[in-house]
Amino acid sequence: MALFNDGPVSSIEDLQGHDTQLLEVANTEGIDVTRKLTLAQEELSLELRVMLARISGPVELASTTSVPSLDHVVVTPPLKLWHAFRTLELVYRDAYNSQLNDRYAGKRDEYRSLAQWAYEKVVQNGIGMSQDPLAQAQPPAVQTSPGALADGAYYVAATWTNGAGEEGAASRPVAITINGSAFMVRPTGPAPSNARGWNVYVGASPQSMFLQNPAALGLTETWAQTNPMTASGRAAGTGQGPNYMRPAPRTLQRG
What we know:
This protein is an alpha+beta fold. It is built from five helices and nine strands. The chain folds into two domains: about 5-130, no CATH class; about 140-225, no CATH class. Strands 4-3-6-7 form a four-stranded antiparallel beta sheet, with no helix packed on it. A three-stranded antiparallel beta sheet has the order 2-5-8, with no helix packed on it. Strands 1-9 form a two-stranded antiparallel ribbon. Helix 2 (about 20-30) runs parallel beside helix 4 and helix 3 crosses helix 4.
């Protein structure tokens, strides 16, 4: 699972899984689906802030944990559906407003109902929370170095780890082509304040990257990929799962 603040909860591919006509409609009506994903994320962030602010009562969590915020929210399956259906509602709302086509109105209303259904599931299940959240890592710096790896293209990603050994979402992969050499990897950007190490994942494609280092690396340590890459084991993941579920009071839904 990923953190809510790592970026858009859903992708265009996720939306197409619910609506195969999405891109055709968007192209026909001149709708920017990427922008709608962002707008839906902003709407959900406002509603989640209200939910978290209204939460009261005891929570089974160590008293030393900071007050939960959006930084702690984990994307659970109901939350992902809520975002996807809200985005599709926004797409078809714009499509209807452009053409006043009843077919678009029907789809708009369908996805509004589904978004409400998914919201109710969030309320029933609670908001997934990470006790010690780690933001998604930025793409690492990768450069060639002396060595003799098999020639070809490699894809490299990085993750941050915290004191409990939990791991944040993997960065976007960086591609490097090797010809009679090896490569080195180091993390980029400031490390999260709670990060205690980082991991490196390498693969022959962005969909098949596997952990290379046997133990978490130091925050300023560089990884040298001089041995053949490990092509099995732990794959690059989407991040932390929830440590606990925060009760989610109902808020007034728009529409």
